Amino acid sequence: QVQVLESGGGLVQPGGSLRLSCAASGRALSILAMQWYRQAPGAQRDLVATISRGGSGNVADAVKDRFSISMDNAQNTGYLQMNNLKPQDTAVYYCYVHDRATGGAWGQGTQVTVSA
After folding, report:
1. Is the sign of the CA dihedral 93, 43, 10, 80 positive or negative?
2. Is there a contact between 2 and 69 (Cβ–Cβ < 8 Å)?
3. Does 78 have pLDDT greater than 90?
4. How far apart are CA 36 and CA 96, in angstroms?
5. What's the Cα-to-Cα distance from 81 to each of 13, 26, 28, 32, 42, rounded to whole Å?
6. Which of 32, 40, 41, 58 allows an S-S link to 98, with CB 3.0 to 4.6 Å?
7. Can you tell me the distance from the alpha carbon of 60 to that of 13, in angstroms, rounded to the nearest whole number?
8. Helix (H, G, I), strand (E, B) or coil at 87
9. Confidence band (pLDDT; 50, 70, 90) for 5?
């Protein structure tokens, strides 16, 4: 089964930037797409961004002016670049990897906290 590991979260001041990484691994791994979700305390898990292998990315309207998504196909790693972070961006950020063989898997999440 595909293994998914997010990293790059942490505590950042408002206006700061973070780059989250999503590293996928597994036997016969064939990534079709990666997605980033976030879930704040007491809230639902919302889609933030999606990127297809060899395709363009799509970012949710709420953050599309500040966030961008990319993927390094050779390294099976996706990235979420987050700029001008705001307190309302505070959440656990999850990566979901869509794999041709297994269907996909979630990572464990990485905490992003935006606070002065």
Report:
1. positive
2. no
3. yes
4. 6
5. 15, 25, 28, 20, 25
6. 32
7. 22
8. helix
9. very high
